[in-house]
Amino acid sequence: MLILRATKKLRDRIGAPDLRVGEQSTTALGEWYATRFAWRLDVLLLVNEPTLLPILLPLAPAATALSRAADRIAATMATYGADDAMIADEVEQMRTRRIVPTANRSVVGIMTEFTFLADHSRGRDLDDLEAWLAATPCSPLYRTHTTPKNAFRHQLAQ
């Protein structure tokens, strides 16, 4: 099960919290945090809690955003070297999705920083912007892997 910890401004667009008592993430990558960039065309920003890896995709149509997010996560896993079996298992686990409020202020802070950086780089293609953000040093990762893409690759290797 994919647990998406969404900001209030995103939950207003994609739906209310629906986590049931006792449910936990079953994905290998853990929980994801999400918000939206209120640009001319809204953009969904996903950030993996353990690695801080950012994923960007158009929010519209909001009704299909979570299923498209799962596909985008799988594509990003392939980009950073995950094997096909791990990707297939992760996609299977993400078929069930739950929306909950944010809980980790550090990850919310990183999302705020990514939002600031993205606002100043709006002219970039989303894939290029995503790769640039993934290579951005993040203070919670300074003692370990420095950048989200390095942390993500390390998690894939475990």
TrEMBL record:
Q: Which domain of life is it from?
A: Bacteria
InterPro entries in alphabetical order:
DUF6933
One Pfam family name is: DUF6933
Record domain DUF6933: where? 3-150
Q: What is this protein called?
A: DUF6933 domain-containing protein
Biological source species? Dactylosporangium maewongense
